[in-house]
Amino acid sequence: MSTVTTMAAMTITVSTIVMMVATLISKKTHEEREKSSPFECGFDPKNSARLPFSSRFFLIAVIFMIFDVEIALLLPMPITMTTSNMKSWMLISSMFLLILIIGLYHEWNQGSLEWSN
User: Fold this and answer.
1) pLDDT tens digit sequence for 61-115
2) pTM for the whole thing?
3) In angstroms, what CA-CA distances link 7 with 11, 12, 18, 20, 41?
4) 59 contacts 75 by C-beta, under 8 angstroms
5) In angstroms, rounded to a whole number, what is the distance separating the alpha carbons of residues 103 and 74?
6) 43, 51 in Cβ contact below 8 A?
7) What cellular component terms from Gene Ontology apply here (predicted)?
8) 19 exposed, middle or buried (CB, 10 Å; 0-12, 13-18, 19+)?
9) What percent of the chain has pLDDT over 90?
């Protein structure tokens, strides 16, 4: 048998043994069922999925995702400052930040950021 075949067989054997040991060690007991159940915005996941829920949860999640993506776009700005033209970098950065501030003002003005009415 060649060395490559032996190494492949040993790798598969060791991987199988490690997965079996991990499965035996990580067995969940009946008491841990409540801990391992998913928690979805305070709703019981075992009830009907057709229950109405507040659209505030959805709205806050969408706003969070928008600002999360915008922060990911803001992070590389200081790094690109050294490699680009300073006038164009300032113009682009200012416009991006202005759009963010206008969007934040609009959401604030519409009452989307207020949790309770």
Assistant:
1) 888 888 888 888 888 888 888 888 999 999 998 999 899 889 888 888 888 777 6
2) 0.49
3) 6, 9, 16, 20, 48
4) no
5) 15
6) yes
7) mitochondrial membrane; NADH dehydrogenase complex
8) exposed
9) 21
